[in-house]
Automatic annotation (TrEMBL):
PANTHER family registered for this protein in UniProt: SLR0284 PROTEIN
Top-level taxon of the source organism: Bacteria
A Pfam family matched in the record: Phage_holin_4_2
Protein name: Phage holin family protein
């Protein structure tokens, strides 16, 4: 049940960011749910591989290269999903930062609801 709530909250965050950011768009709410699921899977499967492969660059940049890896994950989701578009890597970077921020707020509300 917690996983479904997290995916739905992530989908809501995707819809909010698509409304706020001019170069990010989502066609429908179902597409936003698909984006949330695909981003979760990409973060689970692809991101660890990218982090290991780019470890020297990440160390030299003191971890800031992880932001670029997050943007690459967003662009990969853009290529995989038809109704989700992100204009370029800079908008993907802004989208990933704001998505992380919104998810942390939403998930903290979910955690406070349990107590």
């Amino acid at each position: 049940m917690n996983l479904i709530l997290r995916i739905l909250l992530s989908a809501i965050a995707v819809v909010i960011l698509a409304k706020v950011l001019p170069n990010v768009s989502v066609d429908s709410y179902m597409t936003a749910v698909i984006v949330a699921v695909v981003l979760s899977l990409l973060n689970l499967l692809v991101k660890p591989i990218l982090v290991i492969l780019t470890l020297p660059v990440t160390i030299v940049t003191l971890g800031l290269f992880l932001l670029i890896i997050n943007a690459i994950i967003i662009l990969l989701a853009d290529k995989l999903i038809d109704g989700f578009t992100v204009e370029n890597i800079w908008w993907a970077l802004i989208f990933s930062l704001l998505l992380s921020f919104l998810q942390s707020i939403f998930f903290s509300l979910l955690k406070d609801d349990k107590q």
